[in-house]
Amino acid sequence: MSADLHARAREFVDRNQDLSPAEQAWLEDHLRQCAQCNDYAELTARAIQGLGSFSFSVGPALVARTQEALTRRAREMEAERSRRRMYLLGFVIACLFTAAGSVLGWQGWAWVAQRLQLVPWEWQLGFSLFWVFPSATIAMLLLVGLGLERSRIHERSLV
User: Do residues 145 and 124 share a domain?
Assistant: First the structure.
């Protein structure tokens, strides 16, 4: 038999769970005919069974430290989730106040501009700079804070 057939058989034995029915049939036929590949398959099966029964004991101190680390990380994640909710809520509130205040403030600014006889572009620029821009800046800073929180989440580990 050629070395390619043995290599193919060993590959099929190694990935036993992922074989198509045709590959499985070919492997079974080859293992019946080839003692070398059959031995390899039996040794592989024994090794897998041995690993399945492998166990080890862990000291109580390690268990306690692991549980403590997991609990601490769960608390940190909950606190981060709470901060994200606050950032989003702040962003939504800032946007709502900007929109509602702009609708109300626009009329007031227009009335003041009319009394002061300002050109439309002057009072519109003033409105934007003194009303919309600060509110929009606060809203954007809240989004930036949220983005920074998310980037910090990906940098942390359990330890």
Answer: yes
